[in-house]
């Protein structure tokens, strides 16, 4: 990944004015009850974009207030086309709205920005020009490189949360996010040809992360920007949005089968705890250890089932009724135990393996079978 030195913040760079062709950029703005902001935003865009770069603006609106009307009125003073897509049944939250807007975009470049004036429109031409110069597919406006800052991120609590989230996300996707210092940014330019719209499953705020991980744009570069104060109103982000973000992360991280198998295995390991606790309690209560083993195993199975349902196959639960899933999962988990002994006997007797390697191999084989079986028989239609 290559970094391109950006021009002075907010100042139109000369190169920026040379690159564009007609209808060069579609600005996509997700809005949720931003009636106090959209007029100001369109004003700012009018001031700083069309003279340097021909543009159109697409709002994707999930508002319950009069935001669409305010946009339409303000649009009459704009020297560029303004479209409002109002969604009656919003899916995917902010990210879903952005993907909707990208599908409606008519230009080769798409710039995504917030509707509350926290993202300076004067940077729009520079994002596109930088992308053209670097032949990049994605240009991120970053708060975390030299020249950028998060002045408008109110409160040390939000700053700390933002830092943590950025760190966590970067550690989960070291390769995909290489060269992106601010994967949480909501301000970026992307080439339409680099978006794989059908592969996207946006969920909440972090649409840039979704695009970087799933669409994998060719080259990524960054431009610094100063995150402004909100012009009017309040942030729409809530604690529920935070939980949605964690689910989004989990979904992205377990998109490939190998990662899913690792998570499956880790959850399986944690199942030892309820298993052993139950065994301890029952043998202490005087139960013979053999029936206790069998019952205790069900505690481990139940624990694993709950975690797997919550964390791993959350959006794949729809294919079967929960009772059906429970039975299938329990059968597979117990078949694993029943299969293991004859498998070890086979490996020792027929293939001449020593007991320890045979046991290790049998554990691996039954684990993989159980994972594949769980995917195919419990969480697929
Ligand atoms: N259509 C639609 N649907 N728009 C939404 C929704 C939704 O469900 N939720 C929020 N928006 C719009 C808001 O109206 C606003 O225009 C923009 O998305 C950003 O929402 P804010 O509520 O202002 O977000 P923020 O300021 O807390 O967070 C911003 O900065 C973060 C970095 O600190 C966003 O840009 C985040 O993506 C970014 O991570
Ligand atoms: Mn905001």
Quick gist of this model?
One of its GO terms (cellular component) is membrane. With 381 residues, the chain is an alpha/beta fold. Helices cover 50% and strands 10% of the residues.
Using the alpha-carbon principal axes, give the shape.
elongated
| Small ligands present | guanosine-5'-diphosphate-alpha-D-mannose, manganese (II) ion
How big is the Rg? 26 Å
Unreliable stretches, pLDDT < 50, 5 or more residues? 1-20
Average pLDDT, all residues: 92
Estimate the strand proportion.
5-15%
Helix content: 40-55%
Tell me how many strands there are: 7
Order of helices and strands: HEHEHEHEHEHEHEHHHHHH
Record the SSE blueprint:
Elements: H1 14-18, E1 25-31, H2 38-48, E2 55-61, H3 67-75, E3 82-86, H4 93-104, E4 109-112, H5 124-133, E5 138-142, H6 156-172, E6 188-191, H7 207-215, E7 220-224, H8 239-253, H9 257-270, H10 272-284, H11 289-312, H12 322-349, H13 355-378
Parallel strand pairs: 1-2, 1-4, 2-3, 5-7
Antiparallel strand pairs: 4-6, 5-6
Outline the structure in words.
- By secondary structure, the protein is an alpha/beta fold.
- Helix content is 50%, strand content 10%.
- The chain is built from 13 helices and seven strands.
- It has helices at 14-18, 38-48, 67-75, 93-104, 124-133, 156-172, 207-215, 239-253, 257-270, 272-284, 289-312, 322-349, 355-378, and strands at residues 25-31, 55-61, 82-86, 109-112, 138-142, 188-191, 220-224.
- A seven-stranded mixed β-sheet has the order 3-2-1-4-6-5-7.
- Helix 9 (257-270) crosses helix 11 and helix 12 runs antiparallel to helix 13 (355-378).
- The longest helix is centred in the C-terminal third of the chain and has 28 residues, at 322-349.
- It is elongated and about 80 Å long.
- The protein starts with 13 loop residues before the first helix and ends with a helix.
- The model is unreliable at 1-20 (pLDDT under 50).
- Manganese (II) ion (MN) is lined by residues 114, 116, 118, 230, 235.
- Manganese (II) ion binds next to loops.
